[in-house]
Amino acid sequence: MAMAGAVRCWRLGAGPSSLQIQALSLHMSKTAMGASQKDFESAMNQVKLLKKDPGNEVKLKLYALYKQTTEGPCNTPRPGVFDLINKAKWDAWNALGNLPKETARQNYVDLVSDLSSSDSSSQVKPEADRKQPGYETLVVTSEDSITKIMMNRPAKKNALTVQMYREIMLALEAASKDDSTLIVLTGNGDYYSSGNDLMNFMNIPPGEMEKEAKNGAILLRDFVGCFIDFPKPLVAVINGPAVGISVTILGLFDLVYASDRATFHTPFTHLGQSPEGCSSYTFPKIMGQAKAAEMLMFGKKLTAREACAQGLVTEVFPDSTFQKEVWTRLKAYSKLPRNALHISKQSIRNLEKEKLHAVNAGENSVLQERWLSDECMNAVVSFLSRKAKL
Ligand SMILES: CCCCCC/C=C/C(=O)SCCNC(=O)CCNC(=O)[C@H](O)C(C)(C)COP(=O)(O)OP(=O)(O)OC[C@H]1O[C@@H](n2cnc3c(N)ncnc32)[C@H](O)[C@@H]1OP(=O)(O)O
Q: Where would I find the ACB domain in this sequence (predicted)?
């Protein structure tokens, strides 16, 4: 809503200390002898420096006080019923009745002083301060109502260790309760993720195989369950190639943005394994039976553009502008009405939740058996011995 004079612009400007000093001096002048014309002018300048948009209700109040101070009581005709913005402004001004100009000026200065104080205390912290502590395999940050969960094992192509599955679940749990509007999952480095860390299958004492397979299936059930039940919009920012489970759970995301460098690969048969992440249900729904079979059964690797054409990816961006374009888009989306967005997500998901949990349980019990098979063990040993052969 544009409002002449009083609330013209909200732009980046003075640093916190100068804002605090000006807020303090405004506060001191108002308590001493009533606001002067100079205080009023200074407050008008101060409004332009606010970093945080105070919202339409406050802007209307500022507008009304500004008009009352500079022109006195409202005596212009009420704008027509369809001129919504000017009508709201007129109503706010008119509501001040015969408030004396000096009182309006004082109230304007007081209001700006309060806004400046809260604005300076809520200014954006540097990146290091925004990083949430307590994660070893992730970097979790919150900014612009977006919580970003970044997988952070770039040297291992963000392969998912047991610790990483657990930390992602914890980060999702925290994000479901924080004040963010959107949640992003992305990867650090050249890969989005190379899927399950094949070392998860190693160093298991011979007698413990069945127990470990059972534990793995429980962990996987809970991990995928978090994505099924997640109440807010989930966005995957696919910065590079994605393999295995990092691909299959994409069917549970709301938006998937990919760099044109990304690829999508689910080599389950090659690994003696079977699909998980609810992909045996979501992929045929998303891309049709034939294309899903090519990926999930025959391990066909898709380019980002192919994955987009098949409906798995929302949009593909050139790698050179990927981060800039995606984050501009997400920042705009994060300003949408939060509750409406969350309710829409939940309405869509609730239709499928029961089915998805049943699919998740079924996939995991099949996988639990697969992990004990020779086919699976041979594939893991073959990957791990590859390095030794080089
Ligand atoms: C609790 C259990 C839940 C199970 C859920 C079921 C999930 C299933 C899946 O996700 S199946 C998919 C599993 N992933 C893979 O099969 C990929 C294996 N990795 C590769 O094929 C390659 O590493 C690559 C194509 C991803 C990348 O190749 P390249 O560019 O040549 O890089 P490097 O191979 O040299 O990799 C660098 C470094 O990272 C290690 N690494 C990469 N991916 C994995 C992985 N998935 N598991 C373990 N380690 C991985 C690789 O060994 C190198 O390590 P090094 O530097 O040699 O120590």
A: 36-121
Contact assessment for residue 89 and residue 3, using Cβ atoms and an 8 Å cutoff = yes
**Binding site membership of 316 for ligand 1 (Cβ less than 6 Å):** no
Q: Which of 265, 270, 223 is nearest to 242 (CA)?
A: 265
Give residue-wise pLDDT tens across range 74-108. Answer: 999 999 877 888 888 999 999 999 999 999 999 99
Is the ipTM, as predicted for this complex, more than 0.90?
yes
For the chain, the average pLDDT equals 88
SS3 state of residue 148: strand
C-beta of residue 184 within 8 angstroms of C-beta of residue 329: no
- Sequence-distant (6+) residues with CB within 8 A of 28 are none
Distance, CA of 266 to CA of 153 (rounded, Å): 20
Backbone φ/ψ region at 220: left (φ over 0), alpha (ψ -120 to 50), beta? alpha
370 lines ligand 1 (CB under 6 A): no
Say yes or no: CB of residue 204 within 6 Å of ligand 1.
Answer: no
Cα 246 to averaged position of ligand 1 atoms, centre (Å): 12
pLDDT tens, position by position, 144-156: 999 999 999 999 9
Give the pLDDT of residue 166: 97
Dihedral angle computed from the Cα positions of residues 371, 374, 377 and 379, in that order, rounded to the nearest 10 degrees:
-110
Region 8-24: mean pLDDT is 33
**Residue 276 CB less than 6 A away from ligand 1:** yes
